[in-house]
Design brief:
This protein is of the alpha+beta class. It is built from 5 helices and 5 strands, in the order E-E-H-H-E-H-E-H-H-E. Helix 2 packs across helix 5. It is globular. It starts with 5 loop residues before the first strand and ends in a 9-residue tail after the last strand.
Length: 158
Amino acid sequence: MEGPVCTLLVSDSDTSPPVRHHLPLGLQSLSQRSFQLRMPTPAQLETGIMEVEDAVMPLARLLPAHTLLATRDPLLRHLALQAVGGHAPGEVPAITREAIEALFERLVAQSSRHYSHQAPDLPPDPRAAAALLVLREILHHWQCTHLWLLPDSVDAAP
């Protein structure tokens, strides 16, 4: 998610090779364009939502029914664990869409207030706020019920 595009691998089964899809957005560019590299205001979050929807909606039609969303990305894993109270990665293999939505709603609520500091359970910087926004929109528009947390590497124990 760091470059100008996000790469997504989609597979119909454990045995079929994944198909690579690219989303025309990256966290740095999203946080720069929509958030001006600052923690977002409510209006900037709305702008970001529209930008992310434009990127994720076309791919929704190409995804197989009952698509599972899984990640090894350290930032997405960290945000997902924040959504469920910071459990250790091995304790929670899947994070519900509702938990991610609740974390995003807390970000929205905080963005509408003027705080001198960030709440510890919220994204600490604009890039992390952008990642949470992307994750929330993908789960919603691709109709995924969970985000599955994969081990850090393919060789790691489950």
